[in-house]
Amino acid sequence: MKYNIKYEKGCLKYLKRLDKNTQLRIIKAINRLPSGDVKKLQGNTEDYRLRVGKYRIIFSKDEKGLVINIIEIASRGEVYNR
After folding, report:
1. Phi/psi at 29 (nearest 5 deg)?
2. C-alpha–C-alpha distance, residues 77 and 82, integer Å
3. How far is CA 55 from CA 1, 63, 64, 65, 75, in A?
4. Residue 32: CB atoms within 10 Å
5. What sections of the protein cross the membrane (predicted)?
6. Which of 4, 8, 53, 67 is surrounded by the fewest CB atoms within 10 Å?
7. How would you classify the pairing of strands 4-7 and 67-75?
8. Which CATH architecture has domain 4-79?
């Protein structure tokens, strides 16, 4: 099943600051969603996290499950402090 992937503006900015190898690893992992090291976040949220090395990608799916919204990309220490 093919998903449409939409990125928040801040995610694209963060990706551009990373080195090329890391960018490629993260983009490949996002394109493979929903497979990978994915877990549902705890609490009152419909968000999930994808782990790629020391980076975390926070995303959500729409009701029909056809669109994946990438909400945040950050290193492990930064991402959970929101």
Report:
1. -65, -40
2. 11
3. 25, 26, 27, 24, 4
4. 11
5. none
6. 4
7. parallel
8. 2-Layer Sandwich (3.30)
